[in-house]
Specification:
Layout: H1 2-5, E1 24-30, E2 36-42, H2 52-58
Antiparallel strand pairs: 1-2
Amino acid sequence: MLQSFNFSNFKYPTPTIFATDLPFCTILVTYQDGVVKEVKHYLGDFAEEGSQAYEHFRR
């Protein structure tokens, strides 16, 4: 699934709003060749309709 999504090259959209009381999650994958990919997903970036993250993940 990671390969079909091309996770190793995924760049998380930059959030346009920030609030410190909303949760986040971190996805950390270590591939067999030792390469590590980390994506921090700040859940508050969906709050603003029209934001880059909102539009990207709405699809």
